[in-house]
Fold this protein.
Amino acid sequence: MGEPLKFVSETSGDLVKLVGYREIILSIGVSRSTIERAVKSGELPPPRKFKARAVWLASEINAWAEALFAGRLTNLANLATTNPDDLGAEELSQKALDLAVLAVSKYTGQQVDPEHVTLSYRPAASEDDEKLTLQRAMQGLASRISEFDEPRAAIIAAWLFPSLRPYFEWRDNSLAEPEALLSLAKRALDDDEWERMVEELRAAHLTGQLPGGRSH
């Protein structure tokens, strides 16, 4: 077998190192509740008191962490799925979070701070909700561009509606390409950027490159 894993250094100079909750959480990537459950189950010795802090020997934490990551402890998935109806939502979510932290740690090969992992729930939007969201977005856009002059409005229209693009005249056809249009639209939606772009084109005597509607 290889050398035991060292999640935290066990000495500081010639002194045996003591570690508290924060050091354990940051070094191993487990939550405080996971540590407390390990103490309660006997998997981890009870903490000592040192200057009003709960601490463990670093060697104790390394031994526990090695067993945890080697799978010699009770599997977290079993904990989360054993009689789940007997567990409250908070307990279940904490066990799920523990699993997520462990999974991310194993996938990345790095110790993950539980504070950087969150669980979220977003209910699926109904068709009516999606229509309302789209309607509000279009109303917001309409309000935003209502005062735009013709070239500025043409850029937004050409960006939003490909079917309208043939109706605009471009001195430089490359500006009508999707990526170029997206870049132009971003600038057109920003007042300062639009003024800057017009000044740049005016300085280069290229204002004719802005689109205008075709005459019929």
